Amino acid sequence: MADVHAEGSRGDDRHRASILVVDDDSRITTLLMAALSKDGYAVTVVNESRKVVSMDLSSVDLILCDVMMPHMDGFALLAAIRERVSCPIIFLTAKTDEDSAVLAYGLGADDYIRKPFGIAELRAKVRARLSQGSRRGRPLLHFGPLDMDLQARQIRVDGRNANLTDAEYRICALLAEHPGRAYAPMQIWEACLAAEDDPAADDMDSDATAAVRVHLSNARRKLKALGVDPIRTIWSVGYQWVA
Length: 243
Prior knowledge:
The protein is an alpha/beta fold. It is built from 7 helices and 12 strands. Helix 5 (166-176) packs across helix 6 and helix 6 packs across helix 7. The longest helix has 25 residues, at 201-225. The termini are far apart.
C-alpha cells in the first residue's frame, strides 16, 4: 500500500505538528488518519515498517507505531531509528505484560497505548505529548560542564550533545529546574509523562514507576558517558538533581 499523507484543516498552531503513523493494519491507519487530521495535524501513514528506516524523520513531531508488524516489528524499528529522532514515540500494542512495557521504555519509547483503545484516549495522549514538547522555561541552565538549553530542548556536556529522547529530556528538565528537590517516581510521571486521561495512580503505579525508572536509567547512562552524573537516587523517596 502506498504511503498516505493528510494535512489538517484547522487554523490553530496544531497544523504545524507532523505525526507519522506506522501500522500494517489499514483499518487502524484509516481511523487514525481521520481523527488526527480532524484535530489539525499533518499525518503521514506508512504501512510497511521497513520503509521508515530510510525516511527523513527530522521534521516529524510525534510517531505512533504498532508493535506487532511483519518483517520488522515496532521494537526493532524503534531500535533502528531512536538515535536519530528525539520526538515522542507512542506504541500501539496488544501486549499487556509488564516486560513488554519495560522493553519499550528501555528502547526509548515515551508511552504506549494498549489495544483496543478509544480514539479519545489516543487523541488526549497525542495532545499531551505534543504540548509537553512545546513548553518553555528559562532559556539556559548551567551546571559546571553541563548546559541545559530549554529552548532547543538539549543537554550538552562540554559542547557535546547528550542525545536524550523526549521523555528523558523532560524528566531531566524537571529535576534540573528544581535542583536539590527529591521527586517520587509518581510525581515525575504525572509532571512529565502522564496524559490527561490516564487512569488513577493506584491503577497504574507499577507501569508508571517502571517507565520513570527506565527513562532515568537511560538518561543517566548517556550523561555518564559524557563524564557527568547529576542525578541521584534517594532511596525510598525518589530522585534529585545535584547542582
